[in-house]
Write the structure tokens for this entry.
Amino acid sequence: MPELLAPLNVTVIGAGVIGLSTAHELASQGHRVRVISDQEPLHTVSAVSAAIWFPYHSENSPAADILLARTLERFEALSLIPETGVDLRFGMDVERRADADRSWTRHVADAAVVDPALLPDGALSATSGTVPVITMPTYLTWLQQQCQRLGVQFEQRTVTDLDELGAHSDAVVVAAGIRGGELLGDDHSVYPIRGQVIRLANTAGLTDWFSDDDHPQGVCYVIPRRDDIIVGGTDVAHDTNLEVDEQTAIDMLDRAISLVPPLADCEVLEHKVGLRPARETIRLEHVAGYGIPVIAAYGHGGGGVTLSWGTARRVVELLNS
């Protein structure tokens, strides 16, 4: 992490995983940081996330690879601290297309091709590896507490105009997810990808994660966390419906049980819906036209958790450039 020349008053807009990670890194460098958000961390889309270190619906580029590697390194370190809610879990990603993207495996030490005898019907291949799985309610609470210990202040309100922040800020970071482009006013490329998931009690004692993004009946993933299991999902672009669709939930669970039969005995605890903030590329840059430095940090799609610490570190670098 580069050393900054002088402490600044920095406002971070957004209290999801990108905003909290960024606030943490800025405060760690000695800056006076406040986070402004219209939602508490546990009510953001980050709290709906499964969450697993896996680049899903996010940019695939050399720049994103740096964010991925940095985040993986940080989560591996955090997995040694039980109260973070971060665990390293083994699992497999099923491939049903000959051009399946295996770029994520470059970063995973034990990545391997799965024995064909273990593949579900219709699968061409699969890759496996051990990656971080994050119990988000535990993690977001821990991360906010770490920010507060570093002196970060939190305000719950809606920001509609960045100019209103200038009197109390030397710099602003826009980590507002789906509202990022709207706040800056110069970016209409952000769009929602609706994700619906089911939270099950992990009475089956499952530990291995499983994903099958190209299943003919729809996306399927099973992410066992400490005390629950997240089953998904959907990936409907430009859908802003935050209500749970009952038939979708039935279909998701049936699909998951067909692939992971022990799920049939797990109690349904909760249904959740979130809107992933998608963009063709992540916007992580200085934004011109303001009297103070403004940095955009949004457009991570379904990879907010996966890219979070790398994004936060890049924001620090940008602020120092």
